[in-house]
Amino acid sequence: MTLGSPKVSKTHSFMTVSLIELWERFGYYGMQALIVYFMVQRLGFEDSRANLVWSACAALIYVSPAIGGWVGDKILGTKRTMLLGAGILSLGYALMTVPTENTWFLFSALGVIVVGNGLFKPNAGNLVRKIYEGDDSKIDSAFTIYYMAVNVGSTFSMLLTPWIKDYVNANYGNEFGWHAAFAVCCVGLLVGLGNYAMMRKTLANYGSEPDTRPVEMNKLFAVLGLAALSVVASAFILEYEDVARAFVYTAGAAVLGIFIYLIKNSETSERAGLIAALVLTVQTVFFFVFYQQMSTSLALFALRNVDWNFQAFGVDLWTWSPAQFQALNPIWIMLLSPVLAWVYASAGRNNKDISIAAKFALGFAVVALGFFIYSFAGMFAVDGKTSSWVMIWGYGAYSLGELLVSGLGLAMIARYVPERMGGFMMGAYFVASGISQYLGGVVANFASVPKNITDPLETLPIYTSLFNKLGIAALVCTFIALAVLPLMRRLTETHHSHNGNGSADSAQ
């Protein structure tokens, strides 16, 4: 919805949303870089429990936007809900700075983060959609740049928080370094809120209908009350594995049912676009199973079976903490995003852009390449330790696949879903992603290492076996994505013809 205010450059509006998203991702990925290590090394969790707790939390973090999008669309307004979410997130990271080993306290802090993310995430993405609505080629390009911008924040936090943890622990002789690192995540959110306060006028033209009215305090208190109950429910889900499993699978059934209901009851002109969105959302579910390995099996692989010294021609260049290897993902994304954005925009101007469905198929193929690189690591390992360059090139392929699939997921919703369903469907997309995050943790547990096994020569084949199977699975997803291309082309042509958007999405 465009609001009645003086005209502001779309670029400035886009920059405002991108910057607060950058700082939100700074906080989230700074925490993600350490959370599995924190549970395994600080709290003494088994690999399997740490993987499933974090994956269940990631699932909740992705599921919660389904409600947050609706709150933004219908209750508080897109911009207000986004800001409320950022404030709650800062509280969640602040709670993680408390030096306690009580698991219920940790799960409660993670519950606050779940709620804050649910309110923030869909509304930030929906604002970008509103800024570039009606221009398909610019939406693809904008969301790719948006994806790059937020990875600036995650890069710095993934490099910074492990260093702070190691520095404080080494110099003060205790375990407070973990909590000092989590404090940095809180500071990031506060900086983001301050930055938004200075630039808020650039978004005066954009928002949902409730943004045009004064805040209704009864609705605000109702949202806050439900948020508090959601924190308790999230902590309970994280505490009990069976409850987490039941919740995630129920959420999956609910999303599928809602999609089917909307398709069945939508206008004829909307149906093809919704079916196309469903097909691509299912493919996204498979992608995020692979994506979740970054903070689970790949993170523990880096801890136990990777030489942390970067070498070239036999010379040590630098040394990283194992948690810092996760920063390779956003670094590659920052390098590749401008290239892809230029390719998309150039192809769009010349009517030669390939469809989102074709980009998804290509994305799965390069993800497969990344996991095969990891699986071949054992061939070059010395005493069970493989070169850091395996991580660099593996993450390179992995990140290109992420840009082609996850990077365009929100653009897919923006392109195919009617405006009146925008916030809710953004949320539904995140629910589907969350389900696969949990499934990713289940998959990662195939490489769980018992506590009594510490020899790298014993742990290496456990990881490489899983990575080889994941590479094969990604290839299967590639062939499935290619097989549905003709269907996607027909759906896209029908969607465009009903909505007056000209020619089809472009040649396969």
TrEMBL record:
The chain crosses the membrane at residues 22-40, 52-72, 81-98, 104-120, 141-164, 176-199, 220-238, 244-263, 272-291, 327-345, 357-380, 392-414, 426-447, 467-488. The keyword Transmembrane applies. GO terms for cellular component: plasma membrane. GO terms for biological process: tripeptide transmembrane transport. GO terms for molecular function: dipeptide transmembrane transporter activity; peptide:proton symporter activity; tripeptide transmembrane transporter activity. It comes from Shewanella chilikensis. This is MFS transporter. Its main location: membrane. The keyword Magnesium does not apply. NCBIfam families: yjdL_sub1_fam. InterPro entries: Dipep/tripep_permease (IPR005279), MFS_trans_sf (IPR036259), MFS_Transporters (IPR050171), POT_fam (IPR000109). It is a multi-pass membrane protein. Keywords: Cell membrane, Membrane, Peptide transport, Protein transport, Transmembrane, Transmembrane helix, Transport. It is found in: Cell membrane.
